[in-house]
Write a structure and sequence with these properties.
Layout (H helix, E strand, L loop, with lengths): L5 E7 L3 H11 L4 E11 L2 E10 L2 E7 L10 E7 L7 H13 L3 E9 L2 E8 L5 E6 L10 E7 L7 H11 L4 E7 L12 E8 L2 E7 L12 E7 L2 H11 L10 E3 L5 E6 H9 L2 H13 L5 H9 L2
Parallel strand pairs: 1-4, 5-8, 9-12, 13-15
Antiparallel strand pairs: 1-13, 2-3, 3-4, 5-9, 6-7, 7-8, 10-11, 11-12, 14-15
């Protein structure tokens, strides 16, 4: 069982299982860990898939065509030559697999910050940054979620990361590089790159004042697994900033990033429930904004 507290949640139209099978076939040490179906949601019957890539947990759902992936949240994939003698070749192989039907956003080549780096949108629209890392300093995991602050949020990466560091335990800042003079439209002093740890997991933040026709949306949300109602109440209170976005455990923070505050017991109940019991449970949680564990258990245990 993964002890990863914050799990990226991917919203697909109908390709969640197909995409999970594709990703687990191209990343090492990867598997689909659970597949369940929730019936009669606003999007019809929805498959929910849990999978891990190189030991990093994801969830995916078939939710219909409401939201589309964009590069505001991407996933960095670190290839460390000090750990893997074939890091460069493995990076190129993964790039080729993701490039099939995909679109390069930054070509795979040498950059000032890496001997080999590329940013690519795969055939499902999900974005990946593949980088040959400099192995100096504290070790980083293979996969790290990355947030890019654009449009009216450009220049907010530092403020947002400070905010996340204040909310979560097991938190600290790692590297921080600012834009120097002469990098317009990016302002001097804004964040070219920072990484930070939340709940002992690494995340990346960066500003970009370039013209982008996208920003954060619900296609990628960050699901926080909670054991108790006290935890749910805490994260809901700390993270939610837009009452109109509160629905079915979902919320939006002050920077427009979507989060889900999710009771772990709910996943256990959904995986065991059948027939009318599952219908009752689904109907109940779909009507909630913030999840109420006692109410969910009550409905689950009704005879």
């Amino acid at each position: 069982m993964s002890n990863q507290k914050i799990v990226p949640h991917l919203w697909f139209d109908y390709q969640a299982k197909e995409a999970a099978e594709f990703y687990t076939s191209i990343f090492p040490d990867s598997e689909i860990t659970n597949l369940s179906t929730v019936n009669d949601t606003p999007s019809g019957d929805s498959d929910i898939v849990s999978f891990s890539l190189a030991g990093f947990s994801f969830m995916a759902i078939n939710g219909g065509p409401n939201f589309k992936f964009n590069p505001s949240i991407s996933f960095m994939v670190n290839f460390d030559p000090s750990k893997d003698a074939n890091a460069r070749e493995n990076l190129k192989t993964l790039w080729e697999q993701l490039a099939e039907g995909g679109t390069p956003l930054m070509e795979l080549q040498e950059y000032p910050f890496s001997k080999l780096y590329g940013w690519i949108q795969d055939k499902y629209g999900l974005s990946w940054q593949l980088i040959l890392t400099n192995p100096e300093g504290e070790e980083r995991p293979i996969i790290i979620p990355s947030m890019m602050f654009v449009q009216d949020l450009a220049g907010k990466a530092e403020e947002a990361s400070d905010y996340y560091l204040s909310v979560f335990n097991g938190s600290k800042r790692g590297m921080l590089y600012r834009y120097p003079k002469g990098m317009e439209p990016d302002e001097e002093g804004t964040i070219m790159f920072t990484d930070y740890m939340l709940e002992n997991q690494w995340f990346v933040g960066m500003d970009s004042a370039q013209e982008h026709d996208f920003k954060f949306n619900e296609a990628i949300s960050l699901l926080v697994k909670c054991e108790t109602q006290e935890e749910i109440d805490y994260y809901w209170d700390k993270l939610s900033s837009d009452p109109s976005a509160e629905q079915c455990g979902w919320l939006k923070d002050p920077y427009g990033v979507s989060w889900q505050v999710w009771p772990t017991v709910m996943g256990e109940m959904l995986s065991k429930a059948e027939g009318e019991q599952k219908e009752r449970l689904t109907k109940t949680f779909l009507q909630m904004k913030k999840f109420d564990i006692d109410k969910l258990k009550e409905v689950y245990q009704e005879s």
